[in-house]
């Protein structure tokens, strides 16, 4: 079975601080995909990043960066110089082809509520 | 390109009634997945449709059903509503759900309240 754990329930920071959101996943599949989504108060999940299991290259995109480590089954997400607009719930998700059907099922973590204070 | 649209956005029903929610995927997307989000259980997968066929199913009772039309639009139906069905129902679409095109893009959701 697939499982995603986001141990941080809530994080509160002051604007311009860096913040890292942790994600640990479990799967027996060798090919899988990891995602980060952002959910602002409006409710819509906004796609941020996707990584596949065979690409451990980490990336920086603007103020966002990701650290994927297969050895520890972690896929952490960092926001540099946080802004008030970054306040939202952030979800880590996992997609596998368990059962050989498709990658159409996402398993989500419980989410981390990020509040950035001015 | 227009995003995923869901109708209605808000719905109030009473126990025992049934409800149908609609989802229009991004143009060209053929896979549609549905999720239920509640404060207690978080985001849970309901089912996925591709080419009018259910390809994946989550652990929900048979009261939850869905279908997909030839234009990829999808509907989900919940019969005999229970108080616990109150939730935000999110629809997501992807190109095909295969390894090369599986990123799911979400709609704004339908917020269902069962009284």
Task: Report what the structure shows.
The complex is a heterodimer of chains A (118) and B (115). With 118 residues, chain A is mainly β. Chain A has strands spanning 3-5, 10-14, 19-21, 24-26, 32-39, 46-52, 59-61, 64-69, 74-79, 88-96, 106-108, 112-117. In chain A, strand 8 (64-69) and strand 9 (74-79) form a beta hairpin. Chain A is globular. Chain B has 115 residues and is mostly beta strands. Chain B has no helices and eleven strands. Chain B has strands spanning 5-7, 10-13, 19-24, 31-38, 42-50, 53-57, 64-68, 74-78, 87-94, 105-106, 110-114. Chain B is globular and about 40 Å long. The model of chain B has no long low-confidence stretch (mean pLDDT 93). Chains A and B meet through strand 5, strand 6 and strand 11 of A and strand 4, strand 5, strand 9 and strand 10 of B.
Detail the topology: elements first, then pairings.
The complex is a heterodimer of chains A (118) and B (115).
Chain A: E1 3-5, E2 10-14, E3 19-21, E4 24-26, E5 32-39, E6 46-52, E7 59-61, E8 64-69, E9 74-79, E10 88-96, E11 106-108, E12 112-117
Parallel strand pairs in A: 2-12
Antiparallel strand pairs in A: 1-4, 3-9, 5-6, 5-10, 7-8, 8-9, 10-11, 10-12
Chain B: E1 5-7, E2 10-13, E3 19-24, E4 31-38, E5 42-50, E6 53-57, E7 64-68, E8 74-78, E9 87-94, E10 105-106, E11 110-114
Parallel strand pairs in B: 2-11
Antiparallel strand pairs in B: 1-3, 3-8, 4-5, 4-9, 5-6, 7-8, 9-10, 9-11
**Helix fraction of chain B?**
under 10%
- CA distance, first residue to last residue of chain B: 37 Å
Share of β-strand residues of chain A: over 45%
Please describe the biggest sheet of chain A, giving its number of strands, its sense, and whether it closes into a barrel.
6 strands, mixed
Distance between the termini of chain A: 41 Å
The most extensive interface between chains reads: A-B, 27 and 28 residues
The number of helices of chain B is 0
What is the β-strand count of chain B?
A: 11
Radius of gyration of chain B: 13 Å
The biggest beta sheet of chain B reads:
7 strands, mixed
What class do helices, strands and sheet pairing of chain A give?
mainly beta
Order of helices and strands of chain B: EEEEEEEEEEE
Number of strands of chain A: 12
Shape of chain B: globular
What count of helical segments of chain A does DSSP give?
0
Shape assignment of chain A: globular
Helix content of chain A: under 10%
Mean pLDDT of chain A: 92
Write down the oligomeric state.
heterodimer
Order of helices and strands of chain A: EEEEEEEEEEEE
User: What is the CA-based Rg of chain A, rounded?
Assistant: 14 Å
């Amino acid at each position: 079975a697939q499982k995603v754990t986001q141990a941080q329930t809530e994080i509160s920071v002051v604007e311009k601080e860096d913040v890292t959101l942790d994600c640990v996943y479990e799967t027996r599949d060798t090919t899988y995909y990891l995602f980060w989504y952002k959910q602002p108060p409006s409710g819509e999940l906004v796609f941020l990043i996707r990584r596949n299991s065979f690409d451990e290259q980490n990336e920086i995109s603007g103020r966002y960066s990701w650290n994927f480590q297969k050895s520890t089954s972690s896929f952490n997400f960092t926001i540099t110089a946080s802004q008030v607009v970054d306040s939202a719930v952030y979800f880590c998700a996992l997609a596998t082809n368990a059962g050989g059907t498709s990658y159409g099922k996402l398993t989500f973590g419980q989410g981390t509520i990020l509040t950035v204070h001015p | 390109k227009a995003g995923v649209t869901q109708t209605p956005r808000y719905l109030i029903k009473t126990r025992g009634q049934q409800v149908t929610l609609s989802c229009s995927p991004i143009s060209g997307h053929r896979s549609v997945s549905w999720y239920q989000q509640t404060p207690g259980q978080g985001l849970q997968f309901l089912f996925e449709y591709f080419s009018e066929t259910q390809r994946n199913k989550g652990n929900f009772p048979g009261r939850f059903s869905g279908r997909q039309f030839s234009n990829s639009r999808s509907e989900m139906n919940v019969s005999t509503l229970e108080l616990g069905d109150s939730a935000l129902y999110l629809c997501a679409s992807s190109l095909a759900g295969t390894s090369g095109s599986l990123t799911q893009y979400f709609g704004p959701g339908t917020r269902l309240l069962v009284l």
